[in-house]
Fold:
Amino acid sequence: MKKIYFDHNATTPVDPEVLDAMLPFLKEEFGNPSSIHWAGRNSRKAIEEGRDKVCRLLNCANLELIFTSSGTEGDNHAIKGVAYAKKEKGNHIITTKVEHPAVLNTCKHLAKDGFETTYLDVDSDGMIDLEVLKAAITPKTILISIMYANNETGVILPIKEIGDIAKARDVTFHTDAVQAAGKIPLDAQKLNVDLLTISGHKLYGPKGTGALFAKRGVRLVPLIHGGHHDRNRRGGTENVAGIAGLGKAAEIAMRDMEKESAQLSTLRNRIEKGLAEKIPHIKVNGHADKRLPNTANISFEFVEGESLLLNLDMKGIAASSGSACTSGSLEPSHVLLAMGLTHEMSHGSVRFSLGKSNTAGDVEYLIEIMPAIVERMRSMSPLYAGAK
Ligand SMILES: *Cc1c(COP(=O)(O)O)cnc(C)c1O
Structure:
């Protein structure tokens, strides 16, 4: 059976060049990067080269990068790190209703320590209102954490404008850029962000790797206390192979981004148009232009998204509903609900997230098999009979 992977926002395969960059540090180059002797020297060098490459992707200085074990750790470190560092100044955090659970649940956890969070609404396009953001800032506001691009819909938020607002009000600004990194150009300097999270496995790097950009001068309480690694900001012997892989992934992303992004948006648009031509009662979710090139989020009315995914899986197609972290539970997507979709439409949504390996043939196969699957599922829905 044909196997087609349309779930790159959940994770990406490791690029063969990335694996090659990692292998020496899983084999003969085993030294501890903190050792001063010969065995450690190449490991140290690999970390610093990885750092250079990630910094080039983010346009930041080497001292401004902390390696992490995941995007989730980066988000935790940024949010808890600022909250604990600035707790004398205030206890108020602003975020949105459409963040990844790594941000939402960190803010929820901080409520136990007396921090209060405002969760901004989004409109039907998945956008926040900057005037509402401005009005939400109080003298107690210490942190704004707003994602760069949404993992479920691909919607890109106005990070530069948010950064300007945060700076004018002297509030620290963190962005979860896990889905943006590698897909669209990032520039930590121009964006006025203080903290920015990325994750390795979303850009063809290894799982269990990531980085947090922390602008010079931003105070951050460490999440992991230990030795003097990463300038005392994260204890623990570095994941040398992982960092070498993350660096290589960043380098490849810089090299290929433009070309790839044009290819992926062409395929994505074809999916949306092809399905809309053949299947009635569907809706593409998210802002029409301010969107990642690779992501299509589509609601199929009168269809249950999870069953649709199982049917696609039987045809060899991997896609997802909502975020990978919430699928498996039957909770409708918090992102789509925040955008005003009904429970039914949220339940009936599928995310196709494209990547390097996808071809026009993959897309045509999807467009070919989908109408019959949807029609068969709908024929079992009593609601559909009435709507037809
Ligand atoms: C995947 C993802 C994360 C979590 O990254 P991990 O490395 O899997 O922990 C955080 N935020 C967003 C937007 C994501 O898509």
